[in-house]
Design goal:
The chain is of the alpha+beta class. 62% of the residues lie in helices and 15% in strands. It has two domains: 4-107, Peroxidase, domain 1 (Orthogonal Bundle), CATH 1.10.520.20; 110-182.
């Protein structure tokens, strides 16, 4: 089990190096899209994470898999960066590196990440309303939504922006009502 702090310490310099390469080649958004895709892929596939984490799998096999997963449409600089991670035996922290890169990119673009947990998937109108609410709260230029569905909320949403939490869920309202009635 890897420590989150140790992983973060390892990921930060690689994410910064990736950002430097991206900025010098005007590819920050393209790298951001590739990083988002990889984070989603790694979150969805335990088998892929296990493959990258396994020290007994030869680096050539990991590189071959990266080549197949990325396809031909991925930037050569980004592909080379991933191959470097394999050579340096840091491919197991790829998800953390990509997340750090995305955090740096959001900071550069004055974008805020808002985690939205809802009882049902949000439609475009509801997403736009959440974005506007977060923009008003944070004075950010853009808002990036990380959406999750939790059917136990019964209804409504929970919005997390940094350390701020707005609980507008039915479950939260019932909990607050219960606390008021019991005191």
């Amino acid at each position: 089990m890897k420590s989150d702090i140790a992983t973060s310490e390892i990921a930060q310099p690689y994410a910064e190096a990736l950002m430097t390469v991206a900025q010098s080649n005007n590819l920050t958004e393209a790298f951001g899209n590739d990083a988002r895709s990889l984070v989603t892929l790694l979150n969805d596939s335990q088998q892929l994470r296990d493959f990258f984490d396994n020290p007994f799998i030869l680096p050539e096999n990991k590189k071959a898999l990266i080549g197949r997963v990325l396809g031909d449409d991925t930037n050569a600089f980004f592909r080379s960066f991933l191959m470097l991670l394999v050579d340096k035996k840091r491919i197991s922290v790829l998800s953390a590196i990509c997340k750090q890169y995305l955090a740096i990119l959001r900071q550069l673009n004055q974008t805020v990440l808002a985690e939205v947990v809802s009882a049902v998937p949000l439609n475009e109108t509801q997403e736009q309303a959440v974005k506007e609410k977060v923009m008003a709260m944070t004075n950010a230029r853009e808002v990036e939504l990380e959406k999750k569905v939790d059917t136990e909320l019964i209804g409504g949403v929970i919005i997390k922006v940094g350390s701020q939490v707005i609980d507008a869920s039915l479950r939260g309202q019932l909990r607050r009502l219960s606390l008021r009635l019991s005191s």
